Fold each of these.
Amino acid sequence: MPEDIEADRRKKLSERIIEIFFREGVSSQTMEGVADKAGVSKRTLYKYFPNKEQLIDSVIMSKLESVETEMLGLMKSDLPFAERILGFFGIVEKYIKPMANKLIRDVITNAPWIWAKIDKFRHDRLLIHLKTILGEGKEKGLLRADLELELVFPMYIAIIEQVGRPEFFLQHDVQPSAVIKTLISILLGGILSDEGRREFAKAERGGIRA
């Protein structure tokens, strides 16, 4: 169908443009420059994205939708608890890593409306999956029985949100992999049961990642 063809063309164009944003950020881009680097005419670019603000918004939100699609696939899988935890953070790292050097800092400084959308997406549509995984782990006895998940999870959210604050990325020159590794250590270090620790250690030895 014509609509499907158009949607596919727009998606492929968005994928090319996000790679440009990863390499060079967003603030220095012009519509003409993006068209040239993406290998399309200005007319084609303006057909899908009427202005630079909509271009940035559409392309980055399209990437976030890809994150959610992959995350939903993980949530529908029958992987055991530890592999799902590692898979969750593996997906997060996979999509954050190419943004870390240039794009995140640029968006925070020059496109704060996009950062606000990223922050809302992370809170409303990603962290809820982490809560679900932890809840399943508690039901299976892989978390300490004496801990109340409804108390633990808000504390975890506070840690994750602090790390995700714009100031963190602007003030600290850290690799996403180091951030993810530290988060996993903090999040799971004190809440796993003995059985949970064994399962998690086994998953780590197996090199499980998204």
Amino acid sequence: MFENIRSARQITFLVLLLFASGLSFTAKSQTTLPMDHVNAMLNPKSLGVKANGAPKFAKGIVAGRYMEDGQCAEVSFSKWEGFPLKRCKYRQPDSTVPGGRVATVIMLNPEKELLAKWLVASCVIVKGNTGVKSCAVKLALDIINASGSQFPVAGIVLEDMDGNNIQDAFAFRDGVTVKLQGGTNNNLALDPNTVVLSTASQSGFARIQSTSRQTYKNYKGSNAQDVTGLKWLDVVRVLYQDAWKRGHDGSLPETVEKYRNDLLVAKCYVLMGIQPPG
């Protein structure tokens, strides 16, 4: 009998703990977004300064957007209708190609203000009101290193992965590096009818913050969508589009929930070394 009572108490405690966690998450989501932290993230010096006092990253949290420096124009793409996509033809230095290597990519990059709000909202969800600024800085630096906050919808991303002044070419779909039928070809990468064979890696790192399948699953727990195979692309696309639409919805109050980006939140838990409640 005593064992039954003890088990009942343990179950009750677990239910109360889960209920309290849910209330805590709801409270955080409905919290007004702290604009002091957002404004701090809009200051380039928030990411560090050089010895002469100049910011380490002149462009601040949007540092590293080299693909935007090319010739860009508005464009549409399958399953991304209604979003302000940009198709950019850009050039990167390459010791094997006179004048540099050229590629074209279609992107949906967040404006600086939206990115700052995504960063702060992620940290409030993960950290509450403690250490939000340092958390946001750490997440921003991680994004700069991972992608320069560039979200490739389709096309080719050039990166000098080995630091040898030779560009490696990667085909993208829905923010994830993929393998295409026919190979890594610019025309194929920009054609929505090209067959996508698989993600380029098992982890399937998703931009803008390199969230893996497993990181997302750890965050969402039993509420996680099926991310096997190419279904991961659908999940990434829906999550990114949802975060984008809420962030640009002028009818919504300026709360943490409005700027919740689950891909960023999932990665933020990992960076902060905190176990997600899901």
Amino acid sequence: MPARPEGELILALETSCDETAAAVVAGGRSVLSSVVASQVDAHKIYGGVVPEIASRMHIEAVSGVVEEALNQAGITASQIDAVAVTHAPGLVGALLVGVNFAKGYACALGKPLVPVHHLRGHVAANYLARVSGHGHAYPDLEPPFLCLIVSGGHTHIVEVLDYTEFRVLGRTRDDAAGEALDKTARLLGLPYPGGPHLDRLGRGGDPKAFTFPRPKVAGHPYDFSFSGLKTAAVNQLQKCSVQLPPVMAATLHSAFSIDFAASFQYAVADYLCQNTLRAARDYGYRKLALAGGVCANSALRSEACARCAAQGIELYLPELQFCGDNAAMIAAQGYYEARAGHFAGYDLNASPSLGIE
């Protein structure tokens, strides 16, 4: 039998959307393996995730990714201490694949089953990092701290009071930041998934070439509204199309499109940083973490680094491989959920809209 790595071993599964992932993490911090089977090519022709296709592909892939995760970690299934699984939130059919597989696997091995909230997992991706936003080594991140969770479906400012205790200070009232980026990418004729393509297109562009609003939510200074930003992008493109036909796909590599992409991303990053740093100031936090798929965006990372450095706030960023959906982050959070005694029975069900708190 292979030698046992140091620390409790958590095998985790993540199937909340269109990534089938499995990972093994020791002690909540050390990644022994992280395997992700992407479905991007299958959904690309539809311009977005098709839930029924996602569920079927999870069923086809889940057993293989778990086996590969164990092989990469150099351990056997009997050596794991617990099985963690994303049970909320997400696409209900996709979640059910992971939840049911995890229940069967834990039962067969006689191991505890640990339910993990997807957004808590994104926060825990920061526990796997080793380099700060300012580029220097730092001690392991520990609560309390403030975290901006920003993805295609979620935008939250959250107090991480302890490893399993969270309080939401602000959230989007309509669209998520990632959705706004993807929509604008589609307007520019960029392929799915739009966010990363928009990021690449905008590099080197003028972030001040176009002006976009920063909507305020009356009485809620930390909340966001990205619907207006999307509408402003549509209106500006329609206005410019009269003078610069055609604006869309044919001008992808024009100075206009590059500047437009850079300006829109700057507006999103500026908006996110404004509200988050306001919350950090008001609540006295000197440690800030970013989490979620959109925190891979270069404009957001750059803006957050600059502003935190200017204000003396220590910024924590996940490694790029742990920004998007993955199971390593679920295993990391699963370790702390298990330490808190948060286990589930075999009646565990998927919860597609459960809050992080």
